[in-house]
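Late entry, written up from scratch paper. The run itself happened at the end of the previous shift, but nothing got recorded in the book at the time, so transcribing now.
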Amino acid sequence: MKILISADMEGATGVTWPGDVLPGAPQWERCRPMFTSDVNAAVLGFYDGGADEVLINEAHWSMRNLLLEQLDDRAQMITGRHKTLSMVEGVQHGDVDGVAFIGYHTGAGMEGVLAHTYLPNSVTGVWLNDVRASEGLLNAHVAAEYGVPVVLFTGDDLACEDALGYAPEARKVAVKDHVSRYAAVCRTPARTAADIRAAAKDATRLAVRHEPVTGGPFTIALEFDAEHLALAATVVPGVDQVGERKVAYTEGTMYDGIRTFKAVTTIVSAAVEEQYG
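Output as recorded:
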């Protein structure tokens, strides 16, 4: 049994505001061990449940946040940026039986601690076939194309509710309760580690590959906080402006859908000016 862990940071234990997740910030250094603790607890739980291999894919910002030296020696980690499938890199090789979304959050325009989709701001909403989409929803569809179920999810309480829509069977652990975008009622790392480890052990029962799901075509729409960002996004072939601040495109597979999404958000990020957006 091989488990892939996709590890994001905004939904980690103790994280509540931008300084907690921005590489180089003092609070980021403080929160890295708590992020690592969440991931390591999942690793330990999966091995407790009988997994033979656990591969971690670093999925936050620079994708160099987890402390490798604090992870269980049996695990391996993909660290660094510019990967074919970004947040779910590793799911595409036909040997993964289940994927865990650790430290995930709600999507742009939703309630939730540090809610966003790919970009920390600028994107005000994302829809997949007219359904409001978080990163979890997008990534779950990518994994489904390779027959890989989402078996474990951790984040704030609202992110866990969001995950019910796309991974109803997955075991879920709320490490904090939403108060506002920048505030939460947080559990201690010792408590969340115990909860995540227990849930991961139980989740191994769900790690069974199924037939790949071919649910296309997929239409993805993005809304921005400024008109010029929508115009910038249309540089990507196939992306059309469908409103003053909104673009959309259609792909036959989520493999192509997520890669186009990454291209759009990269172009848009480069079009944002520091003071005026």
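The CA atoms of residues 25 and 178 lie 23 Å apart.
(Scratch paper discarded after transcription.)
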